[in-house]
Amino acid sequence: MKNILQGSISEAQNSHQSYSIPSYNRLLLVVKDLACVRTIEEIIEIVRLAARDLTNADGVTFVLRDGECCHYVDENAIGPLWKGMRFPLKSCISGWAMLSKQAAVIEDIYQDARIPLDAYKVTFVKSLVMVPIRISDPLGAIGAYWSTPHRATPEEIELLETLTETTAVAIANVQLFQKLTNQNALKDKFIAMLAHELRNPVAPISNGVQLLKLKLGETGAVGETVLKMQHQIKHLSKLIDELLDVSSITYGKISLNLEKVNLVELVRQSLNDHAQAIKKSNLNVVQDLPNTPLWAYVDPTRFFQVFGNLLDNALKFSKADGMIWVDLSFIPGENGSGSVAALSVRDSGIGIDPTILPELFEPFTQADRSLDRSRGGLGLGLSVVKSLVELHGGNVEASSRGINLGAEFKVTLPVCEEITAWHNDPEIIETAKKSLKILVIEDNEDSAVTLKAVLEYFGHEVSIANNGISGVETAREFEPHVIICDIGLPEMDGFAVAQELSKDSKFTRSILIALTGYGGQEDRELALKSGFKCHLTKPVDFEVLTAEIDRYFLVSA
């Protein structure tokens, strides 16, 4: 019998015969389906159905090795087999196939010593073929069963062997995909925690530097040194934000807060924010902006990020005395629809190697590949730009005539009809700038003390609480206009603090601002749901902080 079985396998392996057309087409579909799966469950579902179709068997089982046991994971049969059961490897035919690393072809189960007859007597099985999944290191097996004596044909055996080989590749792909997915999840958690841990020590340094700048000014050796320190702190903060943004965008964790805004004003404001960097780089910027408003639904914060990244890119790769051209124009659509705003940032800098252009917007792509990395970065800025622009329904393109011939980045965004601009009431603005009572809830003493010093410099009365519970108690006694609260607090976290204070009518007109090292999109959303008016990340730019305070007092005045 053994020689007959080996002969059958050998005959199937050496036949090189063509499959029948229906079998070939079915197998081809299975291979295509298995190439796309992402879970073991999907593989099992495909294979258990396909194995029976391909062999015209009365039943099939899908078996996975589980240590020293065979786990009969699933089946497709005319009667119950062993779905969900486990047997020792050495006590069942699937185990024999895995241990022997070869197929078992059995025409009569009652004539084969390898078959545990007691297990088979209650089933319909009379004949079978059991093929291991992956011969070199079997990780399972696929079994085909017949209810009447059946001698498996070479084609049936070859089809099963081809199916198991394809299944082995699919399982390996799934395992690799799951490993990468798990690693990516761990990476995202690590990056989020790294950002938090980096922001905590950077925050008091930033606070101190901003205070020095306010008191010492920007002139003289000390003033210039302070400016350089502030510039580097902002650069470090930007790198942290880019790491978080790439991770959040990749997993769909970024949502936009769309507003109907004038793009012309946003571009002017962003250029004004970069004025110092432009002056320092000794570059000339030529603006060509519309004289009338250009309205679009965008997230202003993200628009500043997009334009700021493109402008930073132009500054980084331009030489002193170079030129940067910023153009914003309206491009009408056909039949009155599909109109877009076209924003172009062009420079006379070092240009882009044509070989890099196709991958320029991919994460971690570096245009500066020199050893000194003098124009370095993480290679994330343009990837973030592309993702944010596309989230707005727009498009971004890069072009360059070659090395040392400059580069151009063009962003197009959908626009909307004009709306009437709202003008601030001077009296309300003046009210917003009055001295305020501000409570800082922060467990990092250095951060709290330096933040207090800066706020007091602006004429505000400031109190500090170093944990959530004392923060709530101090707030009720102090009754502040503004509460600036960390999230990662001992005893009672910032979310709980915001929820507790939001219940108290005393704080109906108070502004709760989250100031934290946790800067992910989920953290922002949870902060707003908890009762915070806004979410800021450490280290905070005091112009941004005071602007947020003014904005909410303007609304509530």
At CATH level 2, the architecture of the largest domain is: 2-Layer Sandwich
CATH T-level topology of the largest domain? Beta-Lactamase
Q: Which strand order does the major sheet show?
A: 3-2-1-6-5-4
* Count of helical regions: 17
Number of domains: 4
The CA-CA distance between the termini, in Å, is: 95 Å
Q: What structural class do helix, strand and pairing data support?
A: alpha/beta
Which value, in Å, is the CA radius of gyration?
34 Å
Helix content: 40-55%
SSE map:
Elements (H helix, E strand, L loop, with lengths): L1 H14 L5 H14 L5 H16 L3 E8 L2 E9 L8 E3 L4 H8 L3 E3 L10 H5 L5 E7 L6 E7 L7 H63 L3 H31 L8 E4 H11 L1 H6 L3 E5 L6 E4 L1 H17 L6 E9 L8 E8 L33 H11 L3 E5 L7 E8 L11 H7 L4 E5 L3 H13 L3 E5 L2 H11 L3 E4 L8 H9 L8 E6 L4 H10 L3 E4 L4 H15 L1
Parallel strand pairs: 8-10, 14-15, 14-16, 16-17, 17-18
Antiparallel strand pairs: 1-2, 1-6, 2-3, 4-5, 5-6, 7-9, 10-11, 11-13, 12-13
Helix pairs in contact: 1-6, 2-3, 2-6, 3-6, 6-7, 6-13, 7-11, 8-10, 10-11, 12-17, 14-15
Short description:
With 557 residues, the protein is of the alpha/beta class.
Structure description:
By secondary structure, this protein is α/β, with parallel strands linked by helices. The chain has four domains: 2-178, GAF domain (Beta-Lactamase); 187-250; 259-414, Heat Shock Protein 90, CATH 3.30.565.10; 426-556, Rossmann fold. The protein contains 17 helices and 18 strands. It has helices at 2-15, 21-34, 40-55, 93-100, 117-121, 154-216, 220-250, 263-273, 275-280, 300-316, 381-391, 426-432, 445-457, 468-478, 494-502, 521-530, 542-556, and strands spanning 59-66, 69-77, 86-88, 104-106, 127-133, 140-146, 259-262, 284-288, 295-298, 323-331, 340-347, 395-399, 407-414, 437-441, 461-465, 482-485, 511-516, 534-537. Strands 3-2-1-6-5-4 form a six-stranded antiparallel β-sheet, sandwiched between helices. Strands 8-10-11-13-12 form a five-stranded mixed β-sheet. Strands 15-14-16-17-18 form a five-stranded parallel β-sheet, sandwiched between helices. Strand 1 (59-66) and strand 2 (69-77) form a beta hairpin. It is elongated, with a radius of gyration of 34 Å. The model is unreliable at 1-17, 369-375 and 417-432 (pLDDT under 50).
